[in-house]
Design brief:
single chain; 257 residues; alpha+beta; 4-stranded mixed beta sheet; 3 helices
Length: 257
């Protein structure tokens, strides 16, 4: 099996609280507004939400020696840029947050001079307990003297943090092909359908972008024949190599449907 080559991505766990049509508010042109602007990487249709409000991050894809990771969260403003730095307000939602706050450090929330967008940095320590569960950090933007709240559905951000392998958002669209989610199958699929393996251009980009972390819209063989060629490789692999859920040989072997 080829060595897994992984580039860090923030992967959407689910679109939590987002609606297809965002609330279109009447903004006061004399005010400035702030909102989280994490772009949705799953642009499978024109109706896909532009920004997401839930992310997940797992240390499982990092090198073993990695002891901390900094997540970069884009923040946009509506209104005019100013020639001075301006602070916006962000708080940790104590009710919804389950992660140990001592392993999380937030950068100073700041929109720098003459910028219409900036970045909130979240430093996460690789704690041993992350190997045993999924923990959530929930951030809420707050109005202050510099900024009012922007798009209603992008003023809260939930980040799932773990050291386990989570089910990707696309799996449910492909469950008829891959079957019930097993992290063992996902790991093998990453090796087989690696970035650059598929030369098929996506609908909106003239370059090969389909791979394990950017799957085609759905299981349509005539639309995505190259993807299905790799699915066949995965199917044959599971037929030739015994793979068990969690390595437990008392359970039935894993096969594709």
């Amino acid at each position: 099996m080829m060595r897994l080559k992984y580039i860090f991505y923030l992967i959407p766990l689910l679109v939590w609280g987002c609606k297809k049509d965002q609330d279109i508010s009447a903004f006061d042109t004399g005010q400035s507004y702030v909102y989280f602007a994490v772009e949705n990487p799953d642009r499978s249709s024109s109706k896909t939400q532009l920004y997401i409000d839930s992310l997940d991050f797992s240390f499982i894809f990092e090198e073993e020696f990695t002891q901390e990771k900094t997540l970069a969260i884009p923040v946009n403003i509506i209104g005019d840029g100013k020639s001075v730095d301006r602070k916006y307000a962000v708080t940790v939602n104590d009710t919804l947050t389950t992660i140990d706050r001592s392993i999380i450090t937030l950068s100073e929330p700041m929109v720098h001079a003459n910028k219409m967008m900036d970045t909130l940095y979240i430093k996460v320590q690789r704690d041993e307990k992350l190997q045993h569960g999924v923990y959530y950090l929930v951030l809420d933007l707050q109005a202050n003297s510099e900024f009012q709240l922007g798009h209603n559905y992008n003023t809260r951000l939930r980040i799932a943090i773990t050291d386990q392998m989570l089910e990707p958002a696309w799996w449910k669209r492909w469950v008829s092909v891959f079957g019930q989610y097993h992290r063992e199958v996902y790991r093998i699929w990453m090796d087989i359908y690696y970035e650059g393996a598929d030369p098929t251009p996506t609908n909106d980009e003239e370059q090969p972008l389909y791979y394990w972390n950017n799957m085609p819209f759905g299981p349509y063989p005539s639309w995505y024949p190259v993807t299905y060629m790799y699915v066949d490789k995965l199917k044959k692999y599971l037929e030739n190599v015994s793979v068990y859920p969690g390595g437990d040989t008392t359970k039935p072997r894993i096969y594709l449907p």
